[in-house]
Amino acid sequence: MSVPERHKGIILAADDNEANRELLSDLLSAEGYRVVCAADGQQALARVDSDSIDLALLDVVMPRPTGFEVCQAMKSKPETRLIPVVLLTSLNSDSDRITGIMCGADDFLSKPVNKHELLARVHSLVRLKHFTDDLESAETVLFSLALSIEAKDPCTEGHCERLSKNSVALADELGLPDELKVALRRAGIVHDVGKVAVPDHILLKPGPLDSEEWKIMRQHPLIGERICSPLKSFRHVLPIIRQHHEKLDGSGYPDGLKGEEIALTAQIMQTVDIYDALSTARPYRKALSPKEAFAIIYSEVKKGWWNEELVNLLEKVVLGASTLTEDNLERMSRA
Question: What pTM did the predictor assign?
Answer without folding.
Answer: 0.62
